[in-house]
Prior knowledge:
Chain A is of the alpha/beta class. Chain A contains 14 helices and four strands.
Amino acid sequence: MRTILYLIQKELLQVLRNKTMLPIIFIVPIVQLLILVHAATLEMKNIDMYIVDKDLSSTSRGIVQKFESSPFYYINHHSFSMQDAENELKKGNIDIILHIPFGFESELVKGNNSGLQLLIDAINGTAAGLIQSYTQAVLADYNRKIMMEWTSPGMKEKPLSIEITRSFWYNPELNYKIYMVPGILVLLVTLIGMILASLNLVREKELGTAEQINVTPIRKYHFIIGKLFPFWIIALFELAFGLLIGKLIFDIPIVGSLGLLFLFAAVYLFAILGVGLFISTLASTQQQVMFINFFFMLLFILMSGLFTPVETMPDWAGVINIANPMAYFMRVNRMILLKGSGFYDILPEFISISVYALIILSLAVWRYRKTV
Amino acid sequence: MSEQKETIITVRNLVKKFGNFKANDNLNFEVFKGEIFGFLGANGAGKTTTIKILCGLWAPTSGEIKVAGFDIYNQTEQIKRNIGYMSQKFSLYEDITVFENIRLFGGIYGLSRHEIAHRAADLMHRLDLEHSRDKLISSLPLGWRQKLAFSVAILHNPKLVFLDEPTGGVDPVTRRKFWDQIYEAADRGITVFVTTHYMDEAEYCDRVSIMVDGRIADLDTPSALKGKYGVKNMNEVFLKIARIKPDQNN
C-alpha cells in the first residue's frame, strides 16, 4: 500500500512539473468546448437560395416573400434562367434552387393543382435532408394559407384540418448546444485519460526506467494503480472544469445529480485508463501508441453517438458499440444532465461499464510483463 | 576465515535463443559470495542478454539458473528483492530531483520513511551531492548521475548487484572513481557482477569471464589468465582469446 503512495507521489510530481502538460490540461477543454460546440451544429441557418420565378404572379411573389422573411434563408440570386441557376449550384455557391414555372398560378386557379421544383445540393446528405424539410414546411404553410383564402372566401370558419402541436422534452428550444456540450465533455475526458495513460507507460519503456522498475520486487497491480491514479484524478478534474465552463458559457442545464454523474465518470475512467494502459502494453514506442490510439479514438468517437444518433446506425454497429466505452458515457452524460435520470435509470449502463472496466484492467495487468 | 566459498549465482547450460540466433550458447559458471565478478566481451557477445536473464527481466530458453539461492523460473520476485541493477541505459527519473529518486526507490523496496531519510542523507554526503539534493537529475553531469544511479541500485543493501556497462561514455578519472565506489560496495559484503568492455577495468576484478560469440571462452583470475596466455595485461589476454574463436579452439 505504501509502495502505491510513493508511486503516486512520483507521477504527480512529474505531471505537475511538466511545463507543457499543465497548460494542455487547462487550455484544451476551453478551446475544444468553444470551437466544437459552435462548429458541430446541425441547425441550418443561412441557406443560400436561388430563385427562378418565371411566373411573376401574386402567388409566386407570395412564396418568394415567405422565404425572404424567414431567418433561415438567404436569397442572393433572382433570375429567369435555369441554366444560370444550375451553374451556380454546380459551383457550390448556393444550396437550393426554387423553380416556379411559367403558368404556375393559372394552373393552380384552373386545376386546383400546380407544381414547382426544388433542386438541392446533396453533397452533404444530412444538410440536404434538413433543407428539404425546412423548405417543404414553408411551402406547406403557404399552401394552407391560400387554400383558406381561395376555397371559402365567404366563410369565417377554418376548414377542417389536423393541427399538430409539438413540445420537445428535455430540450424545449431544440438548442443544439445543449445537446453538444455534454457530448464534447465526454470526448474531452476520454481523450485526456486515454492518451495520458497510454503514453506514460510507453515513455518509461523508451527511457529505460521501466526496466529499472521491473527489476524491483514491486507488484504488478501496485505499479498499475500507481500509474492510473494520477490520471484518474486529472481526468475527473477535467470533467469538473469542463462542466463549469459549459454552465458559465453555454448555460447548459444540470437537471440530474452531479454526484451520480461523477460516480459514473469515476467508473468510466477506470475503463478508459484501462484501455490506454492495455494499448501501451502492446506497443514499445510512443509513436506506435499514438497510431493505435488514433484508430480506437476515431472508432469510439464516431460510433459513440456524439454527432449522429446511435439509433440510426445499422444493427451491427450497435453490437460493436457494446465494446465502445464512450457510447455508454455519451448516453449517460446526456441522460443525467438534460433529463435528470436517476441511478436506476442508468443502472444497465452502470453495470456494463463496471464489467468493462474490470475486464480491461485485468487484461492490462495480465499483459503487463515484468519478465519478457 | 575459511577458504570455503559460498556460491551466489549458479548457471548450468544456459541457452537463450532469439529465433535461430543463439545469444547465449550453453553457458556454465558460478559466482562466489563477496567477489567482484567481471563479465567481459566485445559488443554483441551476449553480456547484456545474460545479465537480463540473471535479473529476471528476460526468460532463458533453457538451462538451470539460481540467483541468491532462488530459481530463475518461478522465484523471480524473491530474486528481485535480493538484487540491485544498474543498466547501461541511464535509469533514474530525469524529471524529478535527486532526493525524490532516492525516496521513490527506497519506498519501492519497502524502506521506512525514517530509513529513507537516513540513507538518503548518508548517500548524498558520501557522494558529495548535498548541495544538489533538490536539483533535477537532468541537470547533473553524466558522471554524477552514474555514481548516483549505482548508489540508488544498492540503497536497499542487496546481496548482489548487477552493473551492465556502468562506465560507458565517461572519462578515465570518473571511471576510476566509480570503481572506488564498487570496492566500497564489495567491502560492505555486496557481490558485484559487472560487465564491461574496458580491459583496464578487468584488472580490478577478482575473477573475470571472457565471452566470445555467446560462449564463455575462458574464466579465471586476471593474474592466472595473464600467466596462461603469457602476456602483460588483460587487454592482450582479450585480444588473444577473441582471435581464437571458441569453435576453432574446440
